[in-house]
Amino acid sequence: MASTAATATQSFGEFRPSSLPLATLGLSLATFMQVLDLTIANVSLPTIAGNLGASQDQSVWVITSFTVANAIALPLTGFLARTFGEVKTFVWATLLFTLFSLLCGLSTSLGMLVFFRAIQGAMAGPMYPLTQSLLVSIYPAAKRGMALAILAMVTVVAPIAGPVLGGWITGDYSWEWIFFINIPIGVFAALVVASQLRGRPEDIDKPRIDWIGLITLILGVGSLQILLDKGNQLDWFQSNTIVALAIVSAISLTVFLIWELTDDQPIVNLRLFRHRNFASGTLVLVLAYAAFFSIGLLVPLWLQNTLEYTPVWAGLATAPIGIIPVLLTFWVGKYGARLDLRWLASFAFVVMGLTCFMRGGFTTDVDFYHVALAQLLQGLGVALFFMPILTILLSDLSGREVADGSGTATFLRSLGGSFAASITTYLWTRGGVVEHSNLVEHISAYSSRVRNAIEASGGQLQQYAAGINRVITQQATQISFNHLFDGLGFIFIALVAVVWLAKPPFIARRGGAASGGH
Question: Which of 291, 359, 436, 446 is most solvent-facing, going by the fewest CB within 10 Å?
Answer without folding.
Answer: 446
